[in-house]
TrEMBL record:
<feature type="signal peptide">
    <location>
        <begin position="1"/>
        <end position="31"/>
    </location>
</feature>
<keyword id="KW-0732">Signal</keyword>
<feature type="disulfide bond">
    <location>
        <begin position="175"/>
        <end position="191"/>
    </location>
</feature>
<feature type="disulfide bond">
    <location>
        <begin position="162"/>
        <end position="254"/>
    </location>
</feature>
<dbReference type="InterPro" id="IPR037176">
    <property type="entry name" value="Osmotin/thaumatin-like_sf"/>
</dbReference>
<feature type="disulfide bond">
    <location>
        <begin position="109"/>
        <end position="115"/>
    </location>
</feature>
<feature type="disulfide bond">
    <location>
        <begin position="210"/>
        <end position="220"/>
    </location>
</feature>
<feature type="disulfide bond">
    <location>
        <begin position="167"/>
        <end position="235"/>
    </location>
</feature>
<feature type="disulfide bond">
    <location>
        <begin position="93"/>
        <end position="104"/>
    </location>
</feature>
<keyword id="KW-1015">Disulfide bond</keyword>
<feature type="disulfide bond">
    <location>
        <begin position="41"/>
        <end position="267"/>
    </location>
</feature>
<feature type="disulfide bond">
    <location>
        <begin position="195"/>
        <end position="209"/>
    </location>
</feature>
<dbReference type="Pfam" id="PF00314">
    <property type="entry name" value="Thaumatin"/>
</dbReference>
<dbReference type="InterPro" id="IPR001938">
    <property type="entry name" value="Thaumatin"/>
</dbReference>
<protein>
    <submittedName>
        <fullName>Thaumatin-like protein</fullName>
    </submittedName>
</protein>
């Protein structure tokens, strides 16, 4: 009796294990990529995810916002065709009163802890990791964007030997005065881009934002973007303004057939 029930139990366990194994294979085939968001900062960061649903409907299998204590990391699956996705870190958040864009010192979004799926892009300044998977030419393209400015250092690594965009430097302390965001104590907590700061006062026709008569790569050179050298000099491998591809170190590509998994690290 005893050995019979023991045999049945083992048979049941084997069936369970086989089932789990099969569903794991199926889940992996459907999900395709694993993303990890890691907080290596000495302070809490509230990561946020936004997908431009005008471009594609695939979204990561992860809430659009969460709390990441120092040293923590979270992994989740991301569809192979994620388009126009952004991941950034928010600082000094408190969602208890009026959850929304002002709930964080930097990077806050409509919605509060969970960024609104339609309008929850981060408030500048924020360093943003941007992704389009399986894009044109069957390439993943990705970058660390300073187009909205900088709040915390970010790096994007991968497991297939593709390029590593980053802004590892802390661009806050020496941020040009007219671009600074400070906290109540006067400490610099973020550094706006010239575009986000509306430095030229004409957002509809701006050499900093590449709009109006400056809306082409040819009419919006880096030389016309105020403080370009400050951001690009400190963070060469980041995407500093709307047409920064010309620098050769802004936008990064990886053959989508390699099915890269990506790690976004705050304070690498
Ligand atoms: C968060 O905000 C609430 C309401 O303003 C306040 O009572 C609370 O002390 C704050 N929490 C922290 C940790 O600052």
């Amino acid at each position: 009796m005893h050995s019979h029930s023991s045999f049945s139990s083992n048979g049941f366990q084997l069936a369970m294990i086989t089932n789990c194994f099969l569903s794991l294979i199926l889940a992996t085939a459907a999900a395709a990529r694993t993303f990890t968001v890691k907080n290596s900062c000495s302070y809490t960061v509230w990561p946020a995810i936004f997908t431009d649903l005008n471009v594609g409907s695939a979204i990561p299998n992860q809430p659009t916002g969460w709390e990441a204590p120092p040293g923590s990391s979270v992994s989740f699956s991301v569809p192979d065709n994620w388009q126009s996705g952004r991941i950034w870190g928010r600082t000094k958040c408190n969602f208890s009163a009026n959850p929304g864009p002002n709930s964080c010192a930097t990077g806050g979004c409509n919605g509060g802890l969970l960024c609104d799926p339609h309008t929850g892009t981060g408030v500048p300044p924020a360093t943003v990791a941007e992704f389009t998977l399986s894009g044109s030419g069957n390439q993943d393209n990705y970058d660390v964007s300073l187009v909205d400015g900088f709040n915390i250092p970010v790096e994007i690594t991968n497991n297939v030997g593709c390029g590593v965009p980053s802004c590892r430097a802390d661009l806050n302390p020496n941020c040009p005065a007219q671009l600074r965001r400070t906290d109540a104590g006067g400490k610099v907590i973020g550094c706006l881009s010239a575009c986000a700061a509306n430095l030229d006062g004409n957002p509809a026709d701006s050499p900093n934002c590449c709009t109006g008569s400056h809306n082409l790569a040819a009419t919006c050179p880096a030389s016309g973007v105020a403080e370009y050298a400050y951001f690009k000099g400190g963070c060469r491998d980041s995407y500093v303004y709307a047409y920064d591809e010309g620098s050769g170190t802004a936008l990064w590509f990886c053959d989508a057939n390699k099915k890269a998994n990506f790690v976004v690290t705050f304070c690498p």
